[in-house]
Specification:
The chain is 18% helix and 30% strand. Helix 1 packs across helix 4. The termini are far apart. The structure holds uridine-diphosphate-N-acetylglucosamine and calcium ion.
Amino acid sequence: MKRYAVILAAGKGTRMKTELPKCAYPLLRKPMIAYIVEHIVNSQAVDETVVVVGHKRQVIQDILGKSVTYALQEEQLGTGHAVMVTKPYLTDPEGDTLILPGDMPLIDDQTIKHALQEHHDRRHDLTIVTTKVDDPEGYGRIVRNESGYLEAIVEHHEASFSQRTINEINTGIYVIKNSILFEVLDKLDNNNLKKEYYLTDIVHILKRSGHVIGTYYLKESFKAMGVNDLYALSIAEAKLRLKINQDLMIKGVAMINPETITIGQNVIIEENVIIHPNTYITGNSVVKKGAQIGPNTEIHESIIGERVVCRHSLVYNSVISEDTSVGPFAHLRDGANIGPKNRIGNFVEVKKSTTGKNTKASHLAYIGDATIGENVNFGCGAITVNYDGKNKYQTHIGNDVFIGCNANLIAPILIEDNSLIAAGSTLNKNVPKGSLAIARAYQVNKENYLRDKKSTNGEE
Ligand code: UD1
Ligand code: CA
């Protein structure tokens, strides 16, 4: 028996009032829909995931890639209609299908696992996951009869005044037997205020035909929070941020002013790390023992070694090895790979370059497309001239090289070990081992120049 998950992500998200399709919106720099797929995978309870896409579907497909199957809903005619288009993909008639909305980023793997388990163990035809919330505005209400059995789900818009006081709501998570799913979907109509095919209507239809419908009650209601507008997105993000930061602090990561610190869900931070205010660490980043990050630092998809100090800086897709200091105001990007015990100081940009140990670029430098050895001093204002307007070229610098201030190294260029580049030089030729390279105009002093000039102006 196969277990499927269907995620509904074809909607525009009209209430977001912006361009991006709703399910692509990020929390802690990761799209909503990616959380859901990840939790499904982690639950180990689902064999195949089908995502219903429609509005701006390429955006969703770019996020999830080949990890899931896509079903296309050309026109968004409602949540019931969205499930209909998955018919060709849910091929096992004996299977169960878990249906989830794509705007529920706080859901976790345990809820997914337990909902499927409960549905199976209790032999339900349909299981609805419900929860109770303080403010049920916008959610479908769970209407029960006097004996407490589920009667119907009534959408907020359709609910009577008394039904609106019900605070048990439909989370939008369902588990249903494939053997009845498409049969019941065929019976849906759109005779309602929104003129949509509501998935929620399957409840009273199945009820009438005598099917076994059960509910699975989710205690922690925040996990089922639906994000319909940008305010809700900020609340969901704040909850997630708080949870991640709490877990990290308990594991020995110190945070100064934690409410200003954003750590992505896939980030690994070892103990004895100190994170200062206004810092973002996101993507699949790793921060090793004893590092100090921030304040005002962004690290994305990067590895930060032990005891690194990184202040007021941007680090994207890069590696910083142990005992190196970065910043303030440094920018490392696109595969910068900084060796141990380096110093990458004020206003230094490093792109697609590697450095060996003990190398320093302490101020105002640009290092792009370069490999730099050990014990190199890259002087203030020195730059690799890597781009001629069309192509990028490589700079190779050996070990124990001293690059004087304001040098321009016009790539492609090789500077061998133990060389010294005089300040202000503009080099366009390779420098052999152990050389002093000077490439600048000689200084000319025109003596008494000032006095002569003044006298011709008649100023004396
Ligand atoms: C839905 C439920 C409501 C529940 C709430 C939980 C219905 C009719 N209502 O309301 O009972 O309490 O979720 O959060 O199901 N979508 C499509 N195609 C469509 C329409 C929607 O793929 O034609 C997708 C959306 O992209 C979204 C999800 O389905 O990810 C839910 O749609 P949304 O409009 O947010 O439903 P709600 O009004 O929140
Ligand atoms: Ca919703």
